[in-house]
Design goal:
It contains six helices and no strands. The chain is an all-alpha fold. The longest helix is centred in the C-terminal third of the chain and has 23 residues. It is globular, with a radius of gyration of 15 Å. It starts with a helix and ends in a 7-residue tail after the last helix.
Length: about 140
Amino acid sequence: MRSPSELALGLLRRARDDGYVVDRLAQDPAAPDWVIGFHAQQAVEKAIKAVLANAKVVFPRTHNIAMLLALLQQNGIQAPDQDVFLERLTPFGVAARYDRELDQSFSLNRERTRLEILALLDWAEAMLSNAKNGSAGSP
């Protein structure tokens, strides 16, 4: 069984992989918004879960970013600054992947998404690093 810190590092690596996809595809006009949105949502979900796991907080299997952000708050963990923007990515976790009718309702500012995801990944990495160095709770 993996330790919380091993789980956290694994989740952060996967979040960075999704972030890489967002960074590259956001600059490609041929890439569908829903694909970029899906990987952005996955990066956010995994990064927040990495921070929660590192703090030994049990979290549910969910794609709901608002719920994960609430868990941060409930456990005294400083949420990333862009939490309202991040919550908007939740529908890309499931609905936008399967329902083509929803494509119109999920508009995506690619550059903002790219920058927000990169900032979020830096936040998660800082949170894990701070916890490792004994100053958990703030980046």
